[in-house]
Amino acid sequence: MSALDAKLHDIQAATELTLSRKGDATTPLLSLRGLQTRFPLGRKYPWTPPRVVHAVEDVHLDIRRGEILGLVGESGSGKTTLGRALLRLVEPTDGRIIFDGQDVTKANDNELRNLRRRMQIIFQDPYASLNPRMTVGETINEAYVIHKLHKTAERKARIGELLSKVGLTPSHATRFPHEFSGGQRQRIGIARALAVEPDFVVADEPVSALDVSIQAQVINLLSDLKDEFGLTMLFISHDLGVVEYLVDRIAVMYLGRLVEVGPASEVYSRPRHPYTQALLSAVPDPVPGRNRKRQILQGDIPSPILPPSGCVFRTRCPIAGSDCAAVVPPMEPVGPGHIKACIKQ
Question: pLDDT by residue (tens digit) across 2-39?
Fold first, then answer.
C-alpha cells in the first residue's frame, strides 16, 4: 500500500468512526431483548437433576446513545454477568444483543474483534486487571497492535497523550503496575479502555476497591471523559450513593432480573419498587441530624440455583401476597420513561 493509499484509508476510517458516533440520538445504541445467561453446574448427586445458576433472566433494556446508565443491586444480583455478556466475555444462553444495528450474539470471530474496538470494559479490580510483567506503555500499546491502529512511530506520543488525559504523565508509561497506587492503576485501566476510541464502555464497579476520596476523583474523571469522547456507558455499582451524580438513568437488578428502570432523578425522589425503596433507605443521609427511615429487608438474597417462583423478590418483600408466587410481574410504566415490575404497587 502506498503512502497516499494509506492516508486515504486512515481518512475513510476516521470518517466512518465519526459518522457512527453521531448516529441518531433518538435510537438506542445498545438494545437487549430477552437476554439470558445461565451456568450449568452438573448434578449434585447421580440421582438428582442437573443444577443451573440463573445469573441473568429475561432482561429487556435499551441504552441510549451518549447516556450513562447506572446498573445497581446487591452483590450476587447478576450485574457483572450482564455487563460481561454484553461484550460476549460471557456467552449469553438466550436472547439478543443489538449494538448499533448489529446482532452481537450472532457475530463471528472477525466481526466480534471489530465490535470490541467499539465496545470496551473497565474491570473492577485494578490490581488483577493489569499484567504485572508489562509496563503501562506496553499494556496500552497492545490494543493498538491487536486492532492495527496508528503507525508505530505515532503510538508512543498517543500513549503519552492518553495518560495525560486520565491524570497521569507520559513518563509513567515506562513503569510497571506494582509501582502505582490503586487509584492510579484504575486510571491506567481507563486509559487502556479508551485507547481504541470506543463508543460504548462497561464500567464494572470501577471505584468499589478505592478509598472514598479517590472514588470522587475517578467518578469526576469518567464524567469528563464521557463529555470529551462522547461515550455511552453502563456504570455498574452496588452503591447508589456513588452513582447518584453521574448517571442519567438507573436500572435496578435483583437476582438476575430488572425490577425498576427510570430517570435517575425520578428513581431517587420517587422509587416505585419495594426493593429500590429498601436500597435507597440504606444510603447514608448527607444532611447531619436528618434521620432517614430505614427499610430493613429480612433474610438473605435467595440462591440463583433455585430462584423463587413468580416474583424473585417476594421472599423478602414486605408487601408480598400469595399471588406474587404465581406470576412473574411484567415491567409496567409508572411515569415518563419510568417502569417497574411489581403487581402490588
Answer: 444 444 344 344 434 444 444 445 579 999 999 999 99
| C-alpha cell of residue 68 | 450513562
Decide if 71 is inside a domain. yes
pLDDT recorded at residue 12: 46
The total number of structural domains that make up the chain: 2
The Cα–Cα gap between 140 and 194 comes to: 9
Residues 75 and 216 in one domain: yes
Please say which residue of 214, 247, 280 terminates a domain: 247
| DSSP character string of 216-246 | HHHHHHHHHHHHHHT-EEEEEES-HHHHTTT
pLDDT exceeds cutoff 60 at 97: yes
Matching residue, cell 445497581? 72
Q: Which domain holds residue 221?
A: 3-247
User: What is this structure's pTM?
Assistant: 0.86
Q: How many CB atoms lie within 10 A of CB 302?
A: 17
Please choose, from the candidates 47, 121, 33, the residue with its C-alpha nearest in 3D space to the C-alpha of residue 84: 121
Yes or no: say if 314 and 324 are a contact pair by the CB < 8 Å rule: yes
